[in-house]
Design a protein that fits this description.
Layout (H helix, E strand, L loop, with lengths): L4 H6 L5 H16 L3 H16 L30 H12 L11 H12 L16 H23 L1
Helix pairs in contact: 2-3, 3-4, 3-6
Length: 155
């Protein structure tokens, strides 16, 4: 089966087949030291699902066992506005603990968003759509690179 972006996003439902595929993908990402990519996708999908103003249908996002550190910590659950800043601090900021490899243009766009935010304590500078370009880059990377290696290993 050839993986597409659409098929990849459907992996985050709660079906047994999806859970098995995500577990295999998680194991491969772990071996390749790219687990942060899968974590970023999972965090953005959760953010979209929880954000009341997000125009796309909310996705039922299956949580991948053993990847809890990539989910927004409970301290941010009270306000969906803090999700975006946590995602930025964790995955986008070059000094973040799980920095993803995205283009300089996309990173600069998100970093400028933080810099123009006059009040550092204002954590509502982001909505899910702000992460769309980074999300699309990472999903394409996973689909066109990691998933292809996974398919080769499964054959």
């Amino acid at each position: 089966m050839t993986m597409t972006v659409e098929k990849f996003e459907k992996l985050f439902d709660d079906s047994p087949e999806s859970k098995a595929m995500l577990a295999s993908l998680k194991n491969l990402c772990s071996k390749e030291y790219s687990l942060e990519n899968l974590g970023f996708v999972m965090a953005v999908l959760k953010y979209r699902a929880r954000h009341p103003g997000f125009p796309r249908p909310a996705t039922v996002v299956h949580t991948i066992p053993g990847m809890d550190k990539y989910l927004v910590p409970a301290v941010h659950w009270g306000s969906v506005d803090t999700y975006g800043r946590w995602i930025y601090d964790t995955f986008i900021d070059p000094a973040g603990p799980e920095t993803i490899n995205i283009s300089a243009h996309v990173r600069k766009h998100l970093t400028d968003r933080v810099r123009t935010n006059a009040n550092e304590n204002d954590r509502s500078a982001f909505v899910p759509a702000h992460f769309d370009d980074a999300y699309e880059e990472i999903v394409r990377l996973i689909v066109n690179d990691t998933c292809k290696r996974l398919q080769v290993m499964d054959t």
